[in-house]
Amino acid sequence: MLAMSITMPLFWGACSGRGTLMGDAITERDSLPVMDTEGVTSLISDSGVTRYRVKTKEWLVYDRKTPSYWAFEKGIYLEKFDTLFDVEASIKADTAYYYDKKRLWELIGNVDIVNVKGERFQTELLYWDQNKRTVYSDKFVRITQPERIITSLGFDSNEQMTVYTFRKPQGIFYFEDTPVASPDSLGTTPTDTLSVTPKAP
Hints:
Number of helices: 1
Strand content: over 45%
Order of helices and strands: HEEEEEEEEEEEE
Helix content: under 10%
Distance between the termini: 17 Å
Largest sheet: 6 strands, antiparallel, barrel
Structural class: mainly beta
Shape: globular
């Protein structure tokens, strides 16, 4: 998975009122973003080398919300480059939220991820916890590997999405003319987990 780190300085002004005491209240400022940027394309470097590109139609920052968060409600697309600047991994989602205090990403709607091994992950909801360095979902997930497709309800993975465990595997579908494997024929039950560690290239 992409390891993205964005540093963004924010500046606030200060003003003095008339000294009138006011109780806690929801003001217009509380519901407005401190930053609203459209048409964002950003290149991110790692050790002086450009490794990532982020694209989004709109980037909103809500610093007064509880919890505070960044919103990418018009979609987000991230790419990771190899040393030759070819795309080796990508993340796409209809909507994304980043909870900056928790360092937690929430990707929603048509989440489509391709890892460095060329495996494709598709789901409707995915979380990326940067503190715990884990990626997980409790929704239906479809993973396309070179020789098969694996489906499950929920999964847990490392950040790179190269080692993962299915929570409730539903089946393995091979591209060859072989019978579809159901959870029962795999010797598992709906509550079993299926650990997958892809072979090294």
